[in-house]
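Encode chain A's predicted structure.
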Amino acid sequence: MKVIVLTGGGTSGHVTPNIALIPKLKAKGYEIHYIGSKNGIEKQLAEKQGLPYHGISAGKFRRYADVKNITDLFRIAGGFFQSLSILKKVKPDIVFSKGGFVSCPVVWASWVLRIPAVIHESDITPGLTNKLTMPFARKVCYTFPESKKYFPDEKACHTGLPVREEMNTGSRLNGLKLCGFTGGKPVLVVIGGSQGSEFINTVVRDALEELLKTFQICHICGKGNMNREYDGLSGYKQFEYIDKELPDIFACADLFISRAGATVLHEILTVKKPALLIPLSKSASRGDQILNAQSFCSQGFSDMLMEENVTKETLVSKVRELYVSRNNYIKSMKKSFSGNAVENVISIIDEIAGERDNSK
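Encoded structure for chain A:
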């Protein structure tokens, strides 16, 4: 039996692609372990899958001067030695990293122990973690075709982004029931990312009166971001977070308002629904969501609004335009890169793990 260690965490975008691989890995007979931070979202999600979970110390790499950079160096060093100990005990044939700061010490430790590592980049440009682990990885899987230029040719593999199989199996009827909606009006689903978006929450609520004239609205607003003033408002349903029912919500959606994180974009692409994307501004990020959104717009999958251009009026206008033109977006999505990302990634894992198995 081959053994694989999955790692990645911090946000759900660094975890859910790993979760998407688990059913196929189990079907192939892999023994699966997960290394993540001691209290991150990855712990909850991995344990829900019944995986042996190993928590390590994790520190953040910052691009700016901060006293926490010093203390976090000690946490990262601690995580490295903890990873060495775990990998020696588990003896994996391969490590698969989905990124996030917790994955750095795991990949470094795998290199020291001569255990091959495969890393995956979700966004168009590589994040800091993948820049730091790329030299120590055997292969780099990437999501967007535009990303190829950032990776060495001998390591680069265009796989797409693994999305959970169940995203294709949702029930529109169950989604409508969950929200208390009817089939009489189209459904607009608002997503601000795994942690919610105060900006999107505010502007959508400001525009509710106008939006509700045309749409029923399911608003996934993030933990602690529900506004009880809107409880009982006809056609508007708030959730802090949705897990197992998410496929049903996606099935009942006619269109989306969303941030432009790679994972949610590809979940939306999976169900072939148009979206108005409001990427995180460059002042609050490294600009990866802007590039992701531009890529989806250039392929005809979505429309976008930059934060600085968002008003109640522009939001309502863009959403209505999107709905009127929805069939054009759906047609483009049906022509999109059709490779199965889960199968693509697992074929690379099989290949690299097999090489190690043959060399033992």
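The first helix runs from residue 16 to 27.
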